[in-house]
Amino acid sequence: MQRRNLCGTFAVLLVTGLPGAALGDAPGGPVAIDRSQALEQAIDGSHAKHVILFLGDGMGDSEITLARNYHVGAAGRLALDTLPFTGTYTTYALQEAHPTLPDYVTDSAASATAWATGFKTSNGRLSTSARTDQPLKTIIELAQEKGLATGSVTTAELTDATPAALASHVNNRSCQGPADMAPCPRYKKSAGGLGSIAEQAIDHHVDVLLGGGRQRFEQVIDGGAAAGQTVLQSAIAQGYAVAGNAADLDAAQPGTKLLGLFALGNMSLEWHGEPARPFPGSGPQRCVEDQRPQTEPSLAAMTRKALTLLAARHRSFFLQVEGAAIDKRDHAADPCGQIGETVAFDAAVSVGLDFARAHPDTLIVVTADHAHTSQIVPPPSQTDHSPGSFSTLVTADGANMTVSYATNLPGRMGEHTGTQVRIAAQGPQAANVVGVTDQTQLFDTMARALSLIGPPASRGPFHAIARFLGLE
Amino acid sequence: MQRRNLCGTFAVLLVTGLPGAALGDAPGGPVAIDRSQALEQAIDGSHAKHVILFLGDGMGDSEITLARNYHVGAAGRLALDTLPFTGTYTTYALQEAHPTLPDYVTDSAASATAWATGFKTSNGRLSTSARTDQPLKTIIELAQEKGLATGSVTTAELTDATPAALASHVNNRSCQGPADMAPCPRYKKSAGGLGSIAEQAIDHHVDVLLGGGRQRFEQVIDGGAAAGQTVLQSAIAQGYAVAGNAADLDAAQPGTKLLGLFALGNMSLEWHGEPARPFPGSGPQRCVEDQRPQTEPSLAAMTRKALTLLAARHRSFFLQVEGAAIDKRDHAADPCGQIGETVAFDAAVSVGLDFARAHPDTLIVVTADHAHTSQIVPPPSQTDHSPGSFSTLVTADGANMTVSYATNLPGRMGEHTGTQVRIAAQGPQAANVVGVTDQTQLFDTMARALSLIGPPASRGPFHAIARFLGLE
Asked: Residue A181: phi, psi to the nearest 5?
């Protein structure tokens, strides 16, 4: 008498030819079993040799669900769904004018500062403290002090907020190249400062830097020893090999630092489609896939190469991999762009999981910097529909799914949202993401996994107080 | 040099007099420690004596974050934040006309059917199969077959979707009392059916039923042995004691079944405030607390009494506790109503956690049936603001937080959303909520914890196939 309504689902899957699982069915099969022992066996309190952080920019739970429903069906599972430890973390920033008060909606710069340094800051800042504008040491800097290799990969410009927070300290995220320094005069090299984000990335000697943003590296340095050179020339002078396209990346060999710049600005999108529109909305539509030029490597390909190059150094490494355009297409109310980037990000996560199978001493973390606009809503009608923009997509299930973008007026840029977001992990120290944490604690988890910070006891009983008072 | 921006926060807390934690600080203190061992120790693969399910209707991650920020501050922690095991689950329903296809936005009836029976159905249905309209056995029915005590507590009508799915089978959730049966003619008692939701709740002999909805129980039964009696008269004839207000509830003694009906319809709200409005929005505001009449018990008080009465039976029990009006006030774009109900729900969770401290063989689950409309957005401006309704609240941090309601046109009822939602648990079998699951698996977890279903092996190798084919 009791039955799951499954039988027809397989027919649907045959018709669509897309991956998926049976609706109403548990992912592990119709009979759910106790996973207590499996979870216990997955707990690993040891140290990690490697840490890979996968950061889906703007990839809140709604964005994950949208991509899952569209790409593998509601009962399907993405690679990022499979990590054994899961929790949520809070993402609020601080107010620049009143840094004792929260700003409930973070931007990517303050968020990246939080997980990269362990300290919150105000929106727009990169690894500098709110109001007092003091540098905050990043996990890449700590890793380098201990002799670890480091890498940063993104589909945005390499000078965009997320990679920038790892390898620069500046009060304004828009100071991306030496010609972009108007908001940060005291950081200019010619003023004796650390320079733009592009300059600092190179000066940090990060071993592998892959992404877009060549325009920033073609700007001319205005002070210091490399004055008059472009950032790119300075990078080569400092020992970087440079890759400009997918073939260059394929050919890159271990032994030197690698700077891959695969686009003038942000890298190209994976998928295209109709943007969301005000009533009556766009769609129903299927997205147009495979739109990235083959001269640009995918995020998965960049991740694979970064892992190959870093592993060839035969020492521990920290690697950050950002799916940057999930956020950018959510801002633009472009569901196909957003989902395509989420799926591409998930393919990069798969590469990381493959690496971890061969290197089980790897901590993998998959999370977001903040949540975003898009919401899955019921089908629209004349009287009941989103007051913003919306689109209906035909999913892998063969069903219609409506996504609404309504944090801002139609035609204006959609906003980040302040909800807690998912964090998932596997490997040494991964159990620390379970529960409700703050994104500053991700820094602790990763740094502890790599033995960059000692256990509290080794730092003395007054460490907490000292850290609180800013003495440490 | 590095410091968390904390010091001023304490001043803020002193000024507001509200609970809170230091901004930028980890919940466990400034020094995060490895929680691997603590998590390992919390894993309990044994069976539970008791299961308490706390169901926040419409309480997605955004609703949780809103309540946390407002009530205890962004760095504070609610009781529901403290459970050791966390994950997300998917909530999609099935389409009535095409039950092999998903409906990506569930209602509370299909959702409750999923966790109460282990089977998905279409929106509006209660523990009946989509299209084929066959009854699906509920966890309360399974529990009663094994001699367990049962209870159901809600702030809505006892005939509302969530409690209804546990103790009734009907094709339409609006068939709440014998006079409400127009959409369900074949379920009428006079047609030889199971009767309305109110009638079935009583006929199920659930030991403790506490909530609103007296209007449904005052309707007259139209068929069967109790024809001509009101449902309330029938309840008394079947051995129920009846409580009509908080004093009655206080005075209720173990030994008989208890039906508490504390309002004609839904129970009163805890907090009042300005509803969200189109631009320029409402607020900044603080909510007006303590608005529930003292004649109506709080959800925490109902939970405490239910636990006392059920525990007095000295046998295992299953108890469901619903915070129902989180959803209802989210639909109405009423942030103070919504947050007040979330805080009241959290107080009920605290009562459950207290019970579990004395009875560690208790599985506690805290989750939602679906996510909802409300989003935390940046401060509005003339050019950039929600196209729906919004309100700015002054939080426990002493900061402004703007919440947007924009899944429907202003003045129209806000919509549920289809994102995955948080599930948290502690006690025996609690580790099974970690990762990404579906809400049908919550049924498995709870039923397995109470030994209502055996392990797969004991059910034979073909159980999965048999269940799939509807033979079991």
From this structure: -95, 10
